[in-house]
Amino acid sequence: MSDDLYGQGLKDLAGREPAAVAGPDASASLDNPLCGDRIDLDLKVEEGRVAAFGHRIKGCLLCKAAAGLAAEQAVGLDAGQAQHLLAQLSGLLKTGAEPAVPALAVFLPVRPHKSRHGCVLLPFKALVKALGG
């Protein structure tokens, strides 16, 4: 795999300390059986929208970076918007489609590495699951 796969933007996202959420309103846990990544996600939800996002992760740099970006993007989203965010990221990884959320473009170097797509999608799938999607 090329060094481009682990660019500084991804390293910065992965290096952020994950937040914790006390007394979550919604939670989800997901595993990626192909690589062993695991995310345990907790949300505070107010009026159907994410008010706080916390997570514990055991995973690779890509999964950690995705969790960091999901934490940034999730606040204020409802279930439908979270699903749309996941669809945008999936489209970017599958076809290189330009995402409506420019921050997702940091994952464009992952596109040629199909075996790593699940690592990036896992936190966003957990977000959708936690919101009941």
UniProtKB/TrEMBL annotation:
InterPro entries tied to this protein: NIF_FeS_clus_asmbl_NifU_N
One Pfam family linked to the record: NifU_N
Lineage: Bacteria, Pseudomonadati, Pseudomonadota, Alphaproteobacteria, Rhodospirillales
One example of a Gene Ontology biological process annotation: iron-sulfur cluster assembly
Location of the NIF system FeS cluster assembly NifU N-terminal domain: 26-85
UniProt organism field: Paramagnetospirillum magneticum (strain ATCC 700264 / AMB-1)
Domain of life: Bacteria
Name of the molecule in the record: NifU homolog involved in Fe-S cluster formation
Gene Ontology molecular function: any one: iron ion binding
